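Q: Structure for this?
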Amino acid sequence: MSKPVTKIGVLTSGGDSPGMNAAIRAAVRTALYYGLEVYGIYRGYNGMIEDEIVKMDSRSVANIIQRGGTILKTARSKEFYNEEGRKKAYANLVKRGIDGLVVIGGNGSFTGAYKLSQEFGLPCVALPGTIDKDLYGTDFTIGFDTAVNTAVQCIDKIRDTADAHDRLFIVEVMGRHAGYIALHSGIATGAENILIPEEETTIEEVITSLSEKEKRKKLVNLVVVAEGHSSGGANGVAEILKQHLPNLDTRVTILGHIQRGGSPTCLDRLIASRMGYHAVESLLEGRHNVMVGILNNAMHYTPIEIAIREKQRLGDDWMKMVKILAS
Amino acid sequence: MSKPVTKIGVLTSGGDSPGMNAAIRAAVRTALYYGLEVYGIYRGYNGMIEDEIVKMDSRSVANIIQRGGTILKTARSKEFYNEEGRKKAYANLVKRGIDGLVVIGGNGSFTGAYKLSQEFGLPCVALPGTIDKDLYGTDFTIGFDTAVNTAVQCIDKIRDTADAHDRLFIVEVMGRHAGYIALHSGIATGAENILIPEEETTIEEVITSLSEKEKRKKLVNLVVVAEGHSSGGANGVAEILKQHLPNLDTRVTILGHIQRGGSPTCLDRLIASRMGYHAVESLLEGRHNVMVGILNNAMHYTPIEIAIREKQRLGDDWMKMVKILAS
Amino acid sequence: MSKPVTKIGVLTSGGDSPGMNAAIRAAVRTALYYGLEVYGIYRGYNGMIEDEIVKMDSRSVANIIQRGGTILKTARSKEFYNEEGRKKAYANLVKRGIDGLVVIGGNGSFTGAYKLSQEFGLPCVALPGTIDKDLYGTDFTIGFDTAVNTAVQCIDKIRDTADAHDRLFIVEVMGRHAGYIALHSGIATGAENILIPEEETTIEEVITSLSEKEKRKKLVNLVVVAEGHSSGGANGVAEILKQHLPNLDTRVTILGHIQRGGSPTCLDRLIASRMGYHAVESLLEGRHNVMVGILNNAMHYTPIEIAIREKQRLGDDWMKMVKILAS
Amino acid sequence: MSKPVTKIGVLTSGGDSPGMNAAIRAAVRTALYYGLEVYGIYRGYNGMIEDEIVKMDSRSVANIIQRGGTILKTARSKEFYNEEGRKKAYANLVKRGIDGLVVIGGNGSFTGAYKLSQEFGLPCVALPGTIDKDLYGTDFTIGFDTAVNTAVQCIDKIRDTADAHDRLFIVEVMGRHAGYIALHSGIATGAENILIPEEETTIEEVITSLSEKEKRKKLVNLVVVAEGHSSGGANGVAEILKQHLPNLDTRVTILGHIQRGGSPTCLDRLIASRMGYHAVESLLEGRHNVMVGILNNAMHYTPIEIAIREKQRLGDDWMKMVKILAS
């Protein structure tokens, strides 16, 4: 059996997502409760290499549960991709006696943790921190609920002005490979069409549906597109639609980075708190190199290498419902 | 086998909850899609008795998915408790040929539907519409997520002023028999103590924990109480605390009815849409007299009489986490 | 003296702005209170030409004070630019005996009202409805406060993610000829630089200030640009900055149409209510062909032709304050 | 002429209000820009007595412009009422060479500043920080706009549930002596009646208006009451109404302390920034012992003793408008 963990490091890495602070807070306080020392590692693996590592106490994480962003900052680290960088980074942990790591981030961040565990035997636990929701082994990822609510609130505003003008709005939301934000925000705002990377909805179908609506004088319409859709995002879609439906008064809005920020929703704070709490318990109980998730209302532990490889898949019957409800 | 349903009525009953409009919209549009006629019944069972029943089309539910409250209005009906009232109500359905019913509400509303199905053989489907979340057979109830986010946003504001003044705030949230709003909003706002009807946390424990905090000069504290806690809600708690901890600067806030209103969150719109959609499919497929829920990510159908009788139970390990994280 | 007004029409025209519904409500109810008949004209001058004119009562404007957009819809009308169109439009008013007009919109909408008053002697009153705030003769325009708060809330979210990543964000807000949204939202979010059409701030100054900040390791920076700034908006600025400051991690967000929608702020509802109320009083008291404004806390009436010609000018000392506060 | 100020102290005192942090930030950065030293005094005059005084630099006020509450904390100090306390406090300033003071707060806080200026010749400048808006010599007070928007958003939510149930809601907002929050939030939410300390509206008028409405079946009604109204706030009003209108379904909500917190609106951040900036300029230019206000769009300086003595008065014609618009 592995040696008990006594000092842990916590870091956030990759794209930031709302709720990361709640996860940091939970991990830090749970570790302190169990008598561990805790270190905050700044700017993800960059800070591990650059030795930006600071001891944390209970006050370090006071009054942050409601804040967007991450107090530990985040970054993508190129140097960490090669072994040299990782050795340097690991040496900084060893120097302080850090013998356990909590990593909050997405796929790329998990890969870093996996490397550390493989190359140096460092016990790692990963938390799913991404607004994209497409990670395997968990029903929730930290930040998705906030991001999708931000998108919904913005699209609600856009609908006000679309209604006032009888306009077609094409709204682009985040999601390079995953359509969850587009799908959920589109359904929740009554979008007429939703274009996501995972589905075959073609622009032709959108054109058909919109021209049918034009005929019956339904002129206020909303199309939600994931940035990663093959059409080239909202601008791509708009260009094609203008060619085929030149009479429609069309506007494009790209929501962009506002989807990453903001005070986290209750759900994101709650799952982040639970995950941070169970991350430390997991390290203590010797359940290492796993991603902590919540599946069917229970904590669920997926080996990191599987979490990296697999994707959460969209269910099937969504698109039929979209079509019926937006009619 | 039962005759196929051809005309359905939709009503909301009991306390309103955000997302009811999204459920109405989904039920109406799905029914129209399948060629059914749809009638809106106003003011719950009251309107069924008083014959406030109006035919609905697709436009009737346009632009409502984002609205709080319920366009069909709601009420509690005393007359419906006796058979006379129900006969009168049912006659109004028969008059129009309404042969299926979608009821959105809580426990009391389900009882009404159950009576109609038992006494007149009317096919009914119930949707869980309550901010209290304690219904059996579903992980989500329509309105809970919005209510708890409203509570969280309010408590965040209260914490601003608590911090500025080094005060103890006692905040009362809704929940006569169920502590879900208190529990989730309390964890999400870092409450020091959470008092809910289901748990044995005594005021003594709160006093102990607060006086320990007073000793180490942690003066900003937050206690979240469900209105149904045995101490008599926030005012009851405040009175006891003032006796035992007279040096604390204590304030009470009762959030009240703001928790029922507001534009629904993405999650509430989404589950309400799915439930409304599957309610109609359920009626069409002959799956009658059930409550439509979502359990472990899949639609789940609970016989109404069981949904009425059973309660969702809180998990166990929450309170330990509360204590550790608020330290 | 002119004949007393007995039947009025109300319309919204040009770009929509939050609070227009509050102004409609106030105008309608005040007119009804004084015994006038009121007609809603849909889609601005378009609907006047197409005869989309509907009688309104007190219920027509119930429950709209909190809604974004405009229940009367809005449009820009090309046909109204030529006399033929205006004659047709006026005939539709005459047909109903409409002898007074309340127009809510911006400069272009005022021009339409001015033409009607000049060509047909129709008593008109104009209300300043624009998110741009640059109208002459009023301290407030309906919609500005909401738009600028929407911008602020979005930029707050962007700052979360900018902070997490040490990034430079360039945010584009609305304002083709006027920098009010950029200036106010920029100051309110602590922007390092603000670029507006009215001021000479050159990109060179921005480069100088950012490279000075780069030297002292202040990497999180925010530049707010009005869409009408000579640099070509946020994308234009980003391109130039990337050339001169290649080490900065730069991102662009264009807030776009979300600034037009949303539930109006208290201030916008209040000034819209006052303006709508005084518009009708103004018509009744024979104060015609004026724009109703609020200047130095009192109602102020500017002849429409002057309101069309003049612009509100920015005060001087803002930019010095921006520089000092963002240091 | 007085000696030039070289070191200033900044404090917040009395009830906190959103935007105080923006004012602190502006005062600190403007002072640093002009080469002054700046000290933060914690917990108002309490901290001055207890010597909780900390030197501040530009980073001390980074990332606070958007935060509710006050980073300097606030308190009411009994000890400062007697000369002994003030001597002790002033000695702590002298010890550090602090020769100028910026006080952010309401009437009581101004009195403290006035005493210091009278007794010790300390140059003071006061900023109007109160959600009540009733201070003399300024159109804006820091926090009012945020508080009233919070009230409006809450009442909007309450209206959702009032509408769903055909209920009468009586909502109490803050304001012991001033009715501004009640008046503005009441108009902005279309309240049927508004009860404020300054006006003679009697409960009898409310009863008359509500029973007239009951007769014409308008059952959804909203009464907004300032806590300081002679009827005894919302509970007092409800009791009387229930006696006279027993058929109405009446509910009470007391908004309470949520009105003090929350991220400040654009307007509050802007005026707080301007006031903080001009407070320091005022100290430097020898304009001492004044309250910095904004009147008719220009900075306005009122001698503190006048600011303490006088009140802002409500305009007259508001109540007529309330009655007409809510009809």
